[in-house]
Protein 1
Amino acid sequence: MIALTPIMVFLAIYLAVSLAAGDFYAMPITVAFVVSAIYSILLLRGKKLDDRIAIFSKGAMNGTTMLMIWIFVLAGMFATTAKGMGAIDSLVGLLLSILPSQAVPVSMFVAACLVSMSVGTSVGTIVTLVPIAAGLAQSIGMPVGMMTAIIVGGAYFGDNLSFISDTTIVATTSQGCKMNDKFKANIYIALPAALICVALYFWIGMRYESASEIPEVRFWTIVPYLLVIVTALMGINVLQVLVMGVGASFVIALVACDMSMIEWLKQAGEGILGMGELIIVVLLASGIMEVVRHLGGIEYVVSNMMKKVKSKRGAEMASMLFIWMVNLCTANNTITLITTSGVIKQVADKIGLDARRTASIMDTSSCIIQGVLPYGAQMLMASALITLSPFEIVPHLYYIYTLALILIISIVLQYPKKYTNRD
């Protein structure tokens, strides 16, 4: 249990100071992570300081962390340079000229669902759509945090159901079921949540008047975003997508936007620097999670949560909570599923759970907890792109909360019946 306390220390410090000050900007998230990181290193008693730091650094320097940092750097370059040459204004103007303001929230949610299902990644969807959504929100007078949460929710709908999502691949292969079978079981949970939110976002959109001013549309400036969206839909790796987007913004800025190379390079540098806090947080969080793992925090969760399971309903509920606990420690839903899949498979075989149902619960549970983590990569990316605190986005994650409620109801009622019994 002590191994899990670094996470509690971070949350306690950040929330206590922010609530006491009445301002979530009052406590820098980096400072809260530094305190938690120092505390985690102190927990490694009986070892030399160099050895403690080596254990911490092993997590901070792993391949997954470095991949995220590459994505953040390129995303920062692309978002800033595209905005600097007017791409966001042009896209906002184009969408507002096509859509009534009342339809903007539901349209952006559906767009995020479709893009994420096509590309199989919530991060890629957030990078592509959040800047556009933020501009639309400002144009119609909607809180930017709420519009960003709409994109995040749609991104997780697609991530949960996509056939090329890494979480889908891990969940199905580890439990021994086909992807299309898992999709059929999953749709009973994800689709009702999405339909509820479509109705909710339509109702929310009725509050907002049409934009008083529609930005001028310069079609050449939209090309980098169209390139990013099309190549992402083709299933190209997110790093390659971002490199092509950055390259396109460079060429078009110089050729069609009368921007000098020095101006473009300055904006690219500002975009990278703007991701600095995010990169620091990811490095510190990854190091902390490695200490938690090294001290046996995840094993503790396994031994205390899974060993007493005896019923199907209990096994499904325990699997969901198990994934939530581990995801809190890893802040990565793919790593969480890889870590927990073996134990969940053993429990499923022992109790007699349907593999399609188990894979569905695993994937859905990981998307729910990752979607609300203020220190998860997706939330940090979204907040960095719009310069808001993650805690200004979290309260508006209506799709994630609806999905969690429906998943719990599905487990309690053991619905749908055809997936609660092994064939």
Protein 2
Amino acid sequence: MSQNRSHAVMAQRHEARDSVDDFPTPPWATRALMEHAVIGQGFRRDTLSEMTCWEPACGRGYMAGVLVDYFDSVRVSDIVRYTENDPLDFLAPSRAKVDWIITNPPFRLGLEFALTALERAKVGVAIFARSNWGEGVERYRRLFGVHKPAIVAQFVERVPLVKGRVDQKASTATSYSWFVWHVDGRWHFDTRHVWIPPCRKLLEREGDYTR
């Protein structure tokens, strides 16, 4: 029997340790965060519009291009220069502070990105990651057991990620979620699991795939 190794079936990716891990997030998935796991969970749209945000693994700007519709200003940076972003190592020591940090970090550095973001965000942090990122003893000891997320927002629809680009026709067998922390402590009693309902068709915009 032959083994099916198509993109839609393989749920893991293996990048070299020096890889920049360039798997852009489709813009609709970032809108889903804002509409269903931020605004939909108690944050006011007009309050967010007065806040600052930082996308520290911005790549070609697919996520930041959405965030500018919600925040007063959005800083973009990445360890390599893609377009007009700051070439910056987010994990290097810094005193920079913003209200929100929202990103899809390199998979192997997700824990470090989350811990660093929690030090630098004044209001909230949102990390896009595989749903099984919530597993693992080290992540529990250093992150989830110490800094409990306010919300884990599970996508009902699959979010296809493709190396180096976004592809409207791509498919995937990998499940993704948004892990959201309320750094300022609001409504922070225990982690809530919420569903991100089917919303891709509603949240896609003309030009999303031609950046």
Protein 3
Amino acid sequence: MKDKTIEAKPDVIAGRNPVSEAIRSKRPIDKILVARGEKNGAVVGILAKARERQIPVKEVDRVKLDFLSGSAPHQGIIALAAAKEYATVDDIFSYAESKGEPPFIMVLDEVEDPHNLGAIIRTAECAGVHGVIVPKRRSAGLSYTVGKASAGAVEYMRVARVANISNLIDELKERGVWVYGADMNGTDYTQCDMSGACAIVIGNEGKGISRLVREKCDMIVSLPMKGSINSLNASVAAGILIYHALKGRS
């Protein structure tokens, strides 16, 4: 008879004590998922510690916790651990400076599919992008799935998390970076000179970039659509724009 035990994924930490210890040890954690309506005193204490570390917390149905934790008892709470430490925005700028190159940055505005994030990191690393920046909330994090989809590129790419993407764009512009948002009804990307200090913003798989982020960009660039549908997969669009920018930097 086959063993029907379902194992938790490597980035899932299940149960009150394991989650508490992960927080205490300052292990990088993407987010904590807690059962909706969970009021147990131990869980409340864990969530307080998580918020002190500014770890996002989300309430979900127990069915989702059951699925993610496999056969491990989750006791109403799990943590999704990051595959590696996050960098900072300053780390990305410092790396570009160390290479004697103008900053080349990818900004992902709520890209939620871990396979897309992994694929973007892989392409970015191959093209010499200095760093990828994602928001702390409503975004895929550096999970095991992302690491696998990146084919190991996540180990070499500086990935930073920020609280607010629109504020980040203001900071990038103040530091001399020209920001290009990928969206519909913009300038044909082939007509854009993306050499020099450059950040490319890729939006959510369904909604695209948010209105405020779009307004903050220096320029909106579009990829021509000749078929019956009017959008590309986020990682495909990112790849095209990354290599267009690379051509101008060569």
Protein 4
Amino acid sequence: MKRRIVVLLTMVFVCSLAVAQDKESKPLAKPLPHKVENVEIRDLKNEVTKLPMWGEKHLLIFYVDPDKHSQNHEFTVEIEENHAAGGDNIYGLGILNLKDTWLPNNIVKGIARKRTEKNNATILADVDRTVAKAWDLGDCNNQFVLILISKQGELVFCKKGELSESDKADFYKIIKEYR
């Protein structure tokens, strides 16, 4: 009896690993670049809004599941401090993926409001995966997603999860084109 339980648990563990690996390796539903539309999401006061500067500037978006807010932290600090992604043609903003977090949305938004008071950043809230669905991003649960949308409304860069050195190099290469 114990042997059967051990075998069964081992099978469940192996299957769950296979599913987790498959989940992480899935590419975007559409190849890059592809056209996307501006979406209606929420600001931190829960008011409906569209993404600012759409069509006026290229948008550098940090789409973050609050459960993984520190994923790629060193890289985002590097971008900020070195103004590596800055430029007159780029507008940066954060979007909180609130549907996939276990944290209470009001607490997450409160923390974000305090942070924006300090750094004057734009942070919006996606309460029902609007961004992920509208732009065919696939599963963004437990993911830090780095996105670049051109002024023309094309999704030109998208990487999910912990960024590799190769991903970072690809980002720096493409961001130079859009400064």
